[in-house]
Write a structure and sequence with these properties.
The complex is a heterodimer of chains A (624) and B (257). Chain A has 624 residues and is mainly alpha-helical. Chain A has helices at 13-20, 41-46, 51-81, 91-98, 109-144, 153-172, 191-194, 199-227, 240-272, 297-331, 338-351, 367-395, 404-421, 424-427, 429-435, 439-469, 475-501, 529-548, 550-562. Chain A is built from 19 helices and no strands. A 5-stranded antiparallel β-sheet of chain B has the order 4-3-2-1-5. Classes of the chains: A mainly alpha (624), B alpha+beta (257).
Amino acid sequence: MQSNVQQFPPNRTEEADAHADHGHDHGHDDHGHHEHHEPGFWSKYIFSTDHKVIGIQYGLVSLSFMLFGLFLMVMMRWQIAHPGVPVPVIGPLLAAVLGQPAAHGIISPELYNSFGAMHGTIMVFLGVVPLAFAAFGNYVVPLMIGAPDMTFPRINMASFHAFYLGGLVMLVSFFIPGGAAQAGWTSYSPLASTIPTDGQAFWLVGMVLLITSSLLGAVNFIATIIQLRTPGMTWMRLPFFVWAQFVTAFLLLLAFPPLEAAGLLQLMDNVAHTSFFLPTGLAVSGPVGQVSGGGSPLLWQHLFWFLGHPEVYVLILPAMGIVAEIIANNTRKPIWGYKSLVYAALVVGFLAFIVWAHHMYLTGMGQGIATFFQATTMIISIPSVVILTCMFLSLWGGSIRINTPMLFALGFLPMFGIGGLTGLPLGLAAADLYLHDTYYVIAHFHYVVAPGTIFALFAGVYFWFPKMTGRRMSEFWGRVHFWCSFVFMNLVFMPMFAQGIKGMLRRMSDGGVNYSAAKVPGVIDTLPGTVMELNTWILWAAVGLGIAQIPFIINLFWSISHGEKVKSDNPWHATTLDWQTPTPPPHGNFAHEPQVVRGPYDYSLPGEVNDYTPQSETGGKSAH
Amino acid sequence: MEIPYTVKNRPDTGIYNAKLGVWLFLASEVMLFGGLFSAYVLLRVGAPEGHWPHGWLDVRFGTVNTILLALSAITTLLAWAACKVREFGKFKFFHGCTILLALMFLGIKSYEYHDKWIHYEIQLKDGTFADGHLEEQDDKQVVLHGRIVKDEKDLYDLRAQKDIQLGEVKIDRASIVKMQNYGPWHNTFTAIYFTLTGLHALHILGGTLVIFYLWGPGSKMYKTDPERFTNRIEVSGLFWHFVDLVWIFLFPVLYLT
C-alpha cells in the first residue's frame, strides 16, 4: 500500500547523511534551492536558521539553566534546614565567587533572597518555557505539520539570540555589587525599587530581552501553523501537540506585552526615579523617601499577574501536548476525545486571561473583584480537568507499551492531578486567606511544574531523541532516572503541604526557626518540632533529586554518539508526520511535500496490517 | 529549501506570511500599549482630588503633530498604491514625503521635551512655589520666566485659570527648599507622559528607519522582485498606520483632557 504514493520514509539514508553534514545539498528535492556552499561551525551551530538546530540550541541552553536553577534550590534548602551554617563542599566556592554575601560559605539573608528570586526567574523564563515551547516547539511543530522550516527562519534565529542574551544578563547580575535581584520572581513594587542593588535593573533588562525573544517566537509559531501546514493537514488533523503549541503561542503573544509595559515602568522607577508603583509618603527604613509619589503598588501586581497567570498555562499546555502524543503512541490507540482536548485547550487559552487576580486576594483590591476572579478560577479548572480526563481515559483498554517516555508521561498524570487539585483551595478567596504565601502554595505550583511539566519535558527528550540523533537513549538508565526522580520529587514537595497547612511562610531565609516552638515556647500556633524537622528531610530529598539527574545527563550526552542506533526512521511506530522524515531530518525536512489524508492518531485501525497508519498514508480506512 | 507563501497568498488563508506576521506583531503591540494605557487610567483615577494636571501640554503642538502623522498615513498609502501600479517615481516621492513628515514630527516632539526639561518648579522657604522656564542660574540666584503661586495646587489645573501672568522671577538660592524640572520624576503625569510618548517616539524612529531603508538602499529589490518589494511596503505601511493610530489615542488622552 506504500508503493503507489510518495514513499515515506523513502529510502534515503545516504542522502540523509549528506544533508546532516550540510555537505553538498544535491538531494532530489524538487521544490528547493540548493545551497552549494559549505557552512562553517558558526553558521551551522551558532547562527543557524534551521528550526531543528535552533530547537536543539534552545534545548541545551534551557536544560543548563534548569540545572543551575536546581543548584540554587539545593543551596536554599541547605540554608533553610541549617540557617547560618556554612554550606559544606560548595561553601568555599560560593565565598570565592560571590564574596561578601557568601562570606565564610554562609548564605546571607540577602543572598538567600537573590537565590530565591533567581531560582524562580531562571526556572520559569529561562528553563521550562524555552524548553517546552521554544525547544520542542521549534524542533517538532514544523515536522508535525509537514513544513520545510518556520515561516521566518531569520527571526527564529534572532529569537534564540535575544533569549541567550537575556540569560547572560541574568547571570551577570549575580556578580555586580549588591548582587542579583532580591524581590522574588514576582518583583513586587515598592520592594523591587527600594532594595539597594542594581540587580533589579539587570533583571528588568533581562526580562525585556526574554520577552522580545518570546514575542518573535510566538509570531513565528502562529504564522507557521497557519501558513505552512502541508496539503491535507486541516485544522482537525493537527496533532494535539501542535494545538497546544498554537494556544501557547497566543498566550505568549498577548500576555507578555503587559509585563513588558510593567517592566518598562519599573525600570523608569528604578533608573529615572519616577513613581509609577511608589505611593505617596513611602518611607523605607527611616524618613519618607524623596519620590514624587502618587503611584500604585497594585498596578504592578495587576500587570505582572496579567502575564503571570497565562504563564502558568504556557508552562503546562506544551507539556500536555507532549504527554498526549506519547500516550497515543504507547497505548497504540487513538487519543480519547481529540476534539474535546482541542476545544478544552482553546477554552483554557481564553480563560487564562481572566483569572489573574486570584493571586491578589490579600492585596485589598476589594471583595467584588475577588468574587469575580474566584468564579473564573473555578471555571478554568473545568477544561483542565477535561484534558486530564481525556488522557486518563486514553489508557483504558490500550495495550500499553512501557518505556521511559511512557513512564514519564504516566508519572505526569497523577503529579499534575495533585498539583491541580491542591490549587482549588487557593482559588477560593476564603481558604486562600489562610494558605496564601505559605509552603502550601510552593508545594501546589511545584507539583504542577516540577513533577508535572518537567516530567513531560523529560518524556519529550527521551521520545524525540531518536529523531534528533538517530540513536536511542539507554532504556535502563532512563528508568533509573524516572524512578529516582519520581520518588525524590514527592519526598521534596509532599512535606511542604503539611508545613504550609501548619502555617510556615515561604521566603523565610531561616526556614521558620524564629516562629518555631523550640525558639518561642509557650506561644500559640508556633511551628512544632515535627514540622521543622521536615526541613532536613526535604534538604536530603532535594540532594537526592539532584543526584538522580546525573544518570540523565550522562545518558543524554553518551547516547549522542554511543546509543543504540535506530533501525528505521520511525522507531516508535508513530503516525504523525515528524516520524516520516529522514533521521535526523535534513535542512528542509521532507524529501517531498507530504500529503496528509487522515487524522493524527490512526492507531490499530481494524483491517490494517500494521497497528499504526501514518497521516500521509493513503489506502485503508480513515478514522477522521 | 524555500519557504512557501513568502510572496503569494496561501489560497485557503488568503494572506502571505509577512502580512500575517506583522498583524500578529501588531496584536502584541496593542497589548503593550494597552498595558501602558491602563496604567495611565489607574494612575489618573487613583490621583488625589485636584492633583491630576490639566493643560500642561501645548495643544497647538499636539494638533500640528496629529496632522503631520495623518498626512504621513496618506502618503504611506499612496506610496504602496504607486508600487502596486508599478510607478516607481511616484513611490519615491510619496515615501520621501513620509520620511520628511516623520522627521518633522520627531523635531516638534523633541522641542516639546526640551520645553519640559527647562521648566522648573521651585519650592521656597516661605511656603510659596515659583514655577517657570529657566532663563539663567548661577551660585547666587535662579532666574525663571514664570510666576509665583501660594498653593502648589494652583500649578495643576492651568486650563481653569484664564489670566495667568508670566514674568521674570528672580529667586535667591538661599530661599530654595527644592528645585525640580518637569522630567519624568516630577509627578505621575510627567512620568506617564514621557514613558508613553517616548515609547511612541521610539516606534516612530524605528518605523522611519525601516521606511528609509526601503526608500533608499532597499529599493533595489523593486527591479528584481517588484511584487515582493510591494509586499514589504505594505507590511511596513501596516506598522506605520498602527503607530499613527497610537498617536490618535495619545493626543486626546494627554493633551486634551
